[in-house]
Specification:
Layout: E1 2-8, E2 14-21, E3 26-32, H1 39-54, E4 60-65, H2 70-75, H3 114-126, E5 130-137, E6 140-144, H4 148-158, E7 162-163, H5 174-180, E8 186-192, H6 197-215
Parallel strand pairs: 3-4, 3-5, 5-8, 6-7
Antiparallel strand pairs: 1-2, 2-4, 6-8
Helix pairs in contact: 1-6, 4-6
Bound molecules: zinc ion.
Length: 219
């Protein structure tokens, strides 16, 4: 495992990232904590860091960022330190400056936020074949692009439903930016909000771990 600085937050904190596997393996990106108040995804991200550090039996070149919106995680805020919802700020075709509510503030311009600038740069350079983003809400596996096989592997272990849409518009989100517009299939994993940490570590982390085997076959 190698660690590196993925980028910096709006308050200039370094965002740690961890790389596992080998250079020639299928490229995969896992993000936790895009929304800082969805702490269940951060628990899952750190649980994966522990699991992958103990054993990594996959032919993958995997990058794990357990707390992408680090400022938000530290503040227990959905948004970054400038009050922007990073999952409404990516430069998608449907990005909109409209502020539905402060909670979903899209920023002053598409890709205005340093966390997303680092993410966009990473995606351009690395072109991952599969992205997993760990959130919490009502239990659901939301797929954008072709990652149904990974979602099914997780669903077998968790009983979570698989959906292609979450039921309301999400302009500027990662699923649209990467999954639909850049052929980087993206699974948004909504862990049940408020789920206890033991269940996250004992059920969801092993489910994700198993699903990684599926991604090895991606070209
Ligand atoms: Zn979220």
């Amino acid at each position: 495992m190698k660690s590196f600085i993925f980028g910096h937050t709006a308050s200039q904190l370094p965002i740690p990232a961890y790389r596992f596997g080998n250079e020639n393996g299928t490229r995969v990106l896992i993000l936790g904590g895009v929304h800082g108040d969805e702490i269940e995804g951060v628990w899952a991200g750190y649980g994966l860091l522990r699991a992958f550090s103990e054993s990594f039996p996959f032919n993958l070149n995997l990058t794990l960022v357990p707390a992408f919106n680090l400022d938000g995680v530290l503040k227990k805020d959905r948004r970054n330190n400038r009050g922007v919802d990073l999952n409404r700020n990516l430069p998608t075709k449907d990005w909109s400056p409209e502020i539905a509510t402060e909670r979903y503030h899209p920023g002053t311009a598409p890709n205005s936020e340093p966390e997303n600038q680092a993410l966009v740069k990473f995606l351009d350079a690395e072109k991952p074949r599969y992205i997993l983003s760990l959130h919490s809400w009502k239990p659901m596996l939301n797929i954008n692009g072709d990652c149904r096989a990974e979602a099914e592997a997780i669903a077998r272990e968790t009983g979570y439903i698989i959906e292609e849409t979450i039921g309301y518009p999400t302009p500027g989100c990662l699923g649209s930016y990467a999954g639909l517009e850049r052929s980087m299939p993206t699974l948004t994993y909504e862990i049940e909000r408020g789920l206890d940490q033991k269940s996250i570590l004992d059920i969801h982390v092993p489910a994700i771990f198993k699903s990684m085997k599926v991604s090895e076959g991606r070209k």
